[in-house]
Amino acid sequence: MSEYALELRDIRKVYKTATEEIEVLKGITLKIREGELATIMGPSGSGKSTLLSIAGGLDKPTSGRVIVGGVDITDMNEEELTRVRARKIGFVFQSFNLIRNYTALENVMLPLLFTGIFNVKEAKEIAIRALEVVGLKNHANKFPNQLSGGQQQRVAIARALAPNPDIILMDEPTGSLDVDTAARVLSLVKWLNDAFGQTIIIVTHNPEIAELSTRTYYIRAGAIYEEPPKRTLTEIVKEIKSSGSSGDIKKIQLEMLKLKLEALERALKEDRIDPTLIEAEVNSLEHRINRLEKAL
Ligand SMILES: Nc1ncnc2c1ncn2[C@@H]1O[C@H](COP(=O)(O)OP(=O)(O)OP(=O)(O)O)[C@@H](O)[C@H]1O
């Protein structure tokens, strides 16, 4: 058994769309030791969920290796991955992802049955214990819509926990919960890490969750850091300006101004507006169009 619950080696991820290629992850190496409660933070669109999907074998990296509990899952086919995911990886997402017409108990039993290890009776016994761990033993036969948001998230945690996975991956696990319920769910997560030694990775925007964790990582511009990247406001503004979008915005603005000018000229020609009222506006539009054309 490896000392790492999860190892990501030089992970690159390039998304190809019809018009462009985006390199979201630019060679990320990450080693999560057993028993860690790690958080991954970073700006919106920085690739946190992409990294989590790759770590969980839900998505393939463009290059690099993914090793879960000492097993290299990078080149596994879908059938092998389904087994490995069920045995070694638990998932908890913001939207709970419980199956609506299954009871809480059945929802927790499902990944246990997917492992191919347990029969129905064994899966049931383990699932009941997992529900007990999250304080929901008495709600085992309820359907998701008969449970509160916090209870549903606890069922999702029981489901992730039941197969005794090497690692539980959580994507904004408290994102859709109110503050009090979120705090209760988080204290359960923290307790599972402390008492069970369960290795957990949480992707979040919430710095308070990072405070609970044993280690915090930050993703920015496709790279990962253990310290929050220190940037001045001027650097952030420069980065946004040079991100390529401001040129496009100017072009769109120019098109909009030209369309407005055309419309004004048409209205003037067709005698639909008072010329004295719009003279200044036409002048100002022409001036702005000139300036933008020079800037592009
Ligand atoms: N299937 C896909 N095809 C093309 N681009 C994608 C795809 N999935 C994600 N992206 C792009 O990859 C980038 C990273 O997305 P990702 O969801 O991993 O970011 P994130 O850090 O989790 O963002 P957030 O905090 O807003 O959830 C984004 O620019 C996104 O638009």
From TrEMBL:
Keywords in alphabetical order, please. Answer: ATP-binding, Nucleotide-binding, Transport
* Domain ABC transporter, chain residue ranges per copy: 6-246
Is Nucleus among the key words of this record?
Answer: no
Question: GO CC: one term?
Answer: plasma membrane
Source domain of life is: Archaea
Gene3D superfamilies attached here? Answer: P-loop containing nucleotide triphosphate hydrolases (3.40.50.300)
Q: What is this protein called?
A: ABC transporter ATP-binding protein
GO molecular function annotations of the record = ATP binding; ATP hydrolysis activity; transmembrane transporter activity
Q: Where are the transmembrane segments?
A: none
Lineage of producing organism: Archaea, Thermoproteota, Thermoprotei, Thermofilales, Thermofilaceae
Q: Native species of this protein?
A: Infirmifilum uzonense
